[in-house]
């Protein structure tokens, strides 16, 4: 019994400090790391103090993978922001139509996933909330829509959280990516309906339900196609651009229907054409990233070359970082391409780097600390104790507990990477104990954890701050709580269907 209590203690400490004491993630990580190390070397686990550096080294190596992707993803965002490209993309999208459903769909399921897929960090909220306000949506609508728009988080920062989850959980990245994308298809439809309902209300939504559902399905299917046939890292980018193209096509079809067939070319037509060219220029760095990353995954000679050279491998720690094959390398190329394309000066580049360092540093430290807790718990066999307990207590029904574990991690940390670091080993090891596929529970963890980050109090505070309705933070938190509850219900229904099919 004492062994179980001690194994649970690091997780309880993390939850207590974040949820009750409201301490920062870094402070919580430091304290929980120290406590976990003390428990590990206690007589009950008897882990030699000589072995403690091993988990720290493993955590440092894992964090280096994150740093390589995260830093240059955020840097690309700031370079494009300095060049005015982000604002240009946003204004082009916003001015392409005055139809409120199309505006919301292209922003919430197109632009927001595009920004999140490359940069992560919830920066999409900062990008689209002001646009929604400018389009005439009220502050509550803008806050809710911008928070719900963080739908692509499993593939945020080029799938960084999913990559780390697969690494720590010991499952195939491709299998986890495909599994998550399948689980996300009904959820994308749910979010598409939700943002449209918030924007225009029930009556107008019912009239346009076919279009709304189509866009949700299109996002889900395009993300699945990328995970299954191209690249897990590219899925968010591919899905967001597919949605933007689809909504833009709907807009053009509607314009053609309303336009006189023989209408002469007007100044407005010319302005629209110029606007399209400017939009293409602004989005070119993202297109460059997609094409180059896609080529590296599909073209065999390129794939082999990139994996052969500058590949850092440490077999003792089961660590591998192919510097040229990693998404981080293609982000570097995209940053250089954007600097050249937009002709940024030295000051703008330096400012972008400084802003990136300020934003990245807390995330890097937090991630390192949470991964360290996970590694120390693994070294001391604490996760083994907890998975045995879960298997004995719940048996096969643990599959229905799994989404709530992921949800707790996502809600409290606001980070899919941190949540996966905390809980994915518990999920996969329990799956083995009860005879389930580790990929299933890893997928469930990844999905529930990712989507509950949009309900995280710090994300809600960010949204209300941008929209200047801090006095309504509690109201927004409750509404986002309902969104999160609906998300978990859908995931559980999917698991029930999976169970029924699996037992047939």
TrEMBL record:
Entry keyword annotation includes Transmembrane helix: yes
Entry keyword Membrane: yes
* Keywords recorded for this protein, A-Z: Cell membrane, Membrane, Transmembrane, Transmembrane helix, Transport
Compartments, as annotated in UniProt: Cell membrane
What topology does it adopt in the membrane? Multi-pass membrane protein
Report the transmembrane regions from the record.
6-21, 26-45, 57-79, 121-140, 147-169, 175-197, 209-226, 232-251, 283-303, 323-344, 356-374, 394-415, 482-501
Its biological function?
A: Uptake of L-lactate across the membrane. Can also transport D-lactate and glycolate.
Query: What protein family does this chain belong to?
Result: Belongs to the lactate permease family.
Query: What name does this protein carry?
Result: L-lactate permease
Q: Which source organism?
A: Chengkuizengella axinellae
């Amino acid at each position: 019994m004492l062994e179980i209590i001690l194994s649970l203690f690091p997780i309880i400490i993390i939850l207590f400090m974040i949820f009750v004491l409201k301490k920062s993630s870094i402070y919580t990580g430091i304290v929980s790391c120290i406590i976990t190390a003390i428990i590990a070397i206690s007589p009950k686990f008897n882990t030699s103090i000589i072995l403690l550096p091993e988990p720290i080294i493993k955590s440092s190596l894992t964090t280096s993978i994150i740093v390589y992707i995260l830093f240059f993803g955020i840097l690309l965002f700031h370079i494009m922001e300095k060049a005015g490209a982000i604002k240009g993309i946003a204004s082009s999208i916003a001015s392409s139509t005055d139809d409120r459903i199309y505006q919301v769909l292209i922003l919430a399921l197109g632009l927001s996933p595009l920004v999140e897929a490359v940069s992560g960090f919830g920066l999409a909220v900062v990008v689209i909330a002001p646009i929604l306000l400018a389009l005439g949506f009220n502050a509550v609508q803008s806050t809710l829509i911008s928070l719900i728009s963080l739908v692509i988080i499993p593939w945020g920062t080029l799938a960084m959280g999913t990559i780390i989850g697969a690494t720590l959980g010991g499952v195939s990245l491709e299998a986890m990516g495909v599994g998550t994308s399948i689980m996300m298809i009904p959820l994308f439809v749910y979010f598409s309906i939700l943002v449209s309902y918030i924007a225009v209300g029930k009556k107008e939504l019912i009239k346009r339900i076919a279009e709304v559902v189509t866009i949700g399905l299109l996002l889900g299917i395009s993300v699945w196609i990328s995970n299954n046939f191209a690249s897990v890292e590219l899925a968010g980018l591919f899905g967001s651009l597919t949605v933007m193209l689809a909504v833009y096509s709907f807009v053009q079809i509607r314009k053609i229907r309303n336009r006189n067939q023989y209408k002469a070319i007007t100044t407005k037509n010319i302005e629209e054409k110029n606007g399209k060219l400017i939009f293409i220029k602004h989005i070119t760095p993202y297109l460059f990233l997609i094409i180059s990353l896609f080529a590296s995954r599909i073209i065999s000679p390129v794939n082999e070359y990139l994996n052969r050279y500058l590949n850092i491998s440490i077999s003792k720690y089961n660590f591998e970082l192919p510097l040229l094959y990693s998404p981080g390398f293609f982000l570097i190329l995209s940053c250089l391409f954007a600097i050249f394309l937009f002709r940024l000066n030295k000051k703008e580049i330096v400012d972008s780097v400084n802003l990136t360092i300020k934003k990245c540093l807390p995330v890097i430290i937090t991630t390192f600390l949470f991964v360290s807790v996970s590694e120390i718990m693994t070294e001391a066999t604490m996760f083994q104790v907890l998975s045995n307990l879960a298997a004995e207590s719940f048996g096969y029904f643990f599959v229905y507990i799994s989404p709530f574990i992921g949800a707790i991690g996502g809600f409290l940390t606001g980070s899919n990477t941190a949540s996966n670091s905390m809980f994915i080993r518990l999920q996969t090891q329990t799956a083995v104990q009860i005879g389930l596929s580790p990929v299933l529970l890893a997928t469930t963890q990844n999905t529930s954890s990712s989507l509950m980050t949009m309900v995280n109090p710090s994300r809600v505070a960010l949204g209300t701050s941008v929209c200047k309705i801090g006095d309504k933070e509690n109201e927004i938190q409750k509404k986002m709580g309902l969104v999160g509850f609906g998300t978990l219900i859908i995931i559980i229904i999917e698991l029930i269907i999976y169970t029924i099919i699996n037992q047939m």
